[in-house]
């Protein structure tokens, strides 16, 4: 195993792209500690940072077919890490919003059941609304909000112009905002989910 540990990033990238699990393990060992410390500086939690490292490298493996040995694999991994950290913080903001809203509006004490019910209900409502969107808009929205892809990445994956992606995302958000305004709870949480 020692000889393969000495291979450069470009060769390692080629091997991971071809599905070589040993190379993927080495890539993990090479960069996981760096991602962990990077995440810890933002998340301030060892458990959250460890979970984030697992998420990042799972995404690297899932996206291995788009790896390019001529590009910087370290930069690619850190880009995924930054997007994952952003998504993680955004989810935390949502949870905080639920807790603050319920404390301000309901006398549920320390019971978290209400927060969980509202969160799950909002997710169900959003999923139902997303299902009503035209197919292309629905795909773009899911790639952006569920998988965390950038507009450029979505355009490349779906073979569309970046302008089309931006336009469809804008229309999707307007559609959701219009339908969620009827309920103050959902409107508040939608704001935290997509604009925080």
From TrEMBL:
Residues annotated as domain RNA polymerase sigma-70 region: 27-93
Domain of life, per lineage: Bacteria
Any matching Pfam family: Sigma70_r2
GO molecular function list: DNA binding; sigma factor activity
Residue span, RNA polymerase sigma factor 70 region 4 type domain: 126-175
Keywords of the record: DNA-binding, Sigma factor, Transcription, Transcription regulation
Gene Ontology BP terms: DNA-templated transcription initiation
Transmembrane segments: none
Family named by the database record: Belongs to the sigma-70 factor family. ECF subfamily.
NCBIfam families hit by this protein: Sig70_bacteroi1, sigma70-ECF
Record protein name field: RNA polymerase sigma factor
Species per Swiss-Prot/TrEMBL record: Draconibacterium aestuarii
Lineage of producing organism: Bacteria, Pseudomonadati, Bacteroidota, Bacteroidia, Marinilabiliales
